[in-house]
């Protein structure tokens, strides 16, 4: 009898411990979810505040501003990939010094190193960094990391507004200047995208028109 009673006590104790652990885990997960929701709400408030300020600035000076953010992690990833290709090319050069098919190995090494250098160089281009587009009354000004570029509307040769998926609420303005193409995304800002498109329709004269 004593064994059965001890066994029951142990089982009861284990059940209580499991309930305590479960309650702690539930409390931790609930606190984590609350932190995530608070963080998301903070980001939403910041985004709305930024949109409000941009709208006020637009009403004040008639310029529509749109910032295109480029992630630093993407630039780092490109550089890492480029360095890997360069190192692989160097390894192939060392491998090509002996054995057969030296010319083929050398060509592969040169191609790998050339591609690696191209990728690394591309990660330092102006277009790899944040850009701010200012759509004014007479020109489009692009503010980049190293300087700015001014594009008069009369030099724009084509433009289009793209809505890839209505459910995503993601809109794109693409405009061309000769062989140069510029893509301006508008995440969740259909009104601003349409306002820019209206400016382009008013200011730009293409061959189709």
Kindly summarize this structure in a few lines.
The chain has 209 residues and is an alpha+beta fold. The chain has helices spanning 2-61, 72-96, 102-122, 190-203; strands spanning 64-68, 131-135, 139-144, 147-152, 158-162, 170-177, 180-187. Keywords: Membrane, Transmembrane, Transmembrane helix.
List the helices and strands and how they pair.
Elements: H1 2-61, E1 64-68, H2 72-96, H3 102-122, E2 131-135, E3 139-144, E4 147-152, E5 158-162, E6 170-177, E7 180-187, H4 190-203
Antiparallel strand pairs: 1-2, 2-3, 3-4, 5-6, 6-7
Helix pairs in contact: 2-3
Please report the number of helical segments.
Answer: 4
H/E element sequence: HEHHEEEEEEH
Shape: flat
Distance between the termini: 99 Å
Number of domains: 3
Low-confidence stretches: none
- Write out the strand line-up for the largest beta sheet, numbering strands in chain order: 1-2-3-4
- Structural class, judged by helices and strands? alpha+beta
Radius of gyration of CA atoms, rounded to a whole number? 29 Å
Briefly, what CATH class of the largest domain?
Answer: Mainly Beta
The CATH homologous superfamily of the largest domain is termed Pleckstrin-homology domain (PH domain)/Phosphotyrosine-binding domain (PTB)
